[in-house]
Amino acid sequence: MSDTALAYLASPDVLARARKIKLFLMDVDGTLTDGGVCLISTTSADGSANAVVSEMKVFNAQDGQGLSLAHTMGIQTGFITGRSSPAVARRAKELKVTFVYLGQAKKTEAFEECMRKAGVTEEEVAYMGDDLPDIPLAQRAGLAVCVADGAPELRAICHFTTRRLAGRGTAREVVELILKAQGRWDEAVPQALA
């Protein structure tokens, strides 16, 4: 597909950047989720037992399909997130996410390790985030992506801003952009699994 036919997706510069992507890394809270942190506490009926606190995450099924298609089409994926969450680890396993780095207060070391293990250069990496801790990675990524409702400071330095809001299919939108720019979307669609 020509850049003219893809103009509805993104600028020629963004499409050129997307053509090079081999690794798609992303934050989790505020990108794959809406950014809410839902903590659920349980106690005994009489209130005498210690409270048990659980965390709940809500993931978008279209993001799951997008990340699954990325895997099928040979694009490696990774999560680099500040929170440690068994729910994120579980979702990553379900989607065959290649790299999972939880509890990363500073994300640069994980970013570099992902690149080294994937055997890619910075220009072959797409990174999607939503807030200030994502700025250092966005500044290095070949395709820096901010979600539609992300921090203005991040949006200002990113190459592309999603149309979708956090937790509403942003990863799917980016995977679709990459595969369409690479001319592989039509090949990917029939390989989608339920």
From TrEMBL:
KW Lipid biosynthesis (keyword) present: no
Stored SUPFAM superfamilies: HAD-like (SSF56784)
GO molecular function: 3-deoxy-manno-octulosonate-8-phosphatase activity; metal ion binding; N-acylneuraminate cytidylyltransferase activity
Binding site for Mg(2+): 27, 130
Cofactor: Mg(2+)
Domain of life: Bacteria
Enzyme class: hydrolase
UniProt binding sites for substrate: 29
EC code(s) of this entry: 3.1.3.45
PANTHER family (UniProt xref): HAD SUPERFAMILY MEMBERS CMAS AND KDSC (PTHR21485), N-ACYLNEURAMINATE CYTIDYLYLTRANSFERASE (PTHR21485:SF3)
Subunit note: Homotetramer.
Descriptive protein name: 3-deoxy-D-manno-octulosonate 8-phosphate phosphatase (KDO 8-P phosphatase)
Organism, scientific name: Tunturiibacter lichenicola
